[in-house]
Amino acid sequence: MQQLNKAEFMGVDGRVQQLRRELIEKQSNMRIVPISQSMMDEEKLLRKELEKWSLIDEKIYKQKSRI
């Protein structure tokens, strides 16, 4: 279990920061370039991924605070 945990959830902070940067970049491009459906889909996917990893990060901190 520990190996699985380390393999899947190590570096969650980095993933969250990377997704935030990608989302900001995508949204900036959407302001400049005419918006296409594929851009909107990519932005929506990035938001879902960011929300998922942010919740995982939050749960990790809650678990650490209990220890």
Annotation, overall tally of beta strands: 0
By secondary-structure content and strand pairing, the structural class works out as mainly alpha
Shape: elongated
How many individual domains?
1
Strand count, sense and barrel status of the largest sheet are: none
Low-confidence stretches are none
Radius of gyration: 15 Å
The proportion of residues in beta strands is: under 5%
Terminus-to-terminus distance: 18 Å
Mean pLDDT: 88
Estimate the helix proportion, in percent: over 70%
Q: Treating each run of at least 4 consecutive H or I residues as one helix, how many helices?
A: 3
Order of helices and strands: HHH
How would you concisely characterize the structure shown here?
This protein is mostly helical. It has one domain (2-66).
What are the key terms here?
single chain; 67 residues; mainly alpha; 3 helices; No apical meristem-associated C-terminal domain-containing protein
